Here is the input.
Amino acid sequence: MSLLVTAGQRHDSPQFQPVLEGIRVPRIGAGRPRTKPDKVRADRAYSSRANRAYLRRRGVACTIPEKSDQIRNRKSSAPEAADRPSSTRPTTKSATRWNAGSTG
Here is the structure.
């Protein structure tokens, strides 16, 4: 476990990397303490690109939900976003018939 004390109104996300770097799990017997967790679970406050890149560089698996605005911005900034339809769900003949009948 790692603990970092900051001022009362400091944001949490900038402290993400220093807290992870402070982890030291002693090994049984001799050897350096383990510093890389197997997996990190965090809430949406830690879903920034920098935090995810830091975890990828260190080879740490993570479970961090994404904020809806980040998902929307990623999809709209993709170069192929303008070419694809708004829905990627395949339409069937019966679904098209049902939609056509309900628009009137």
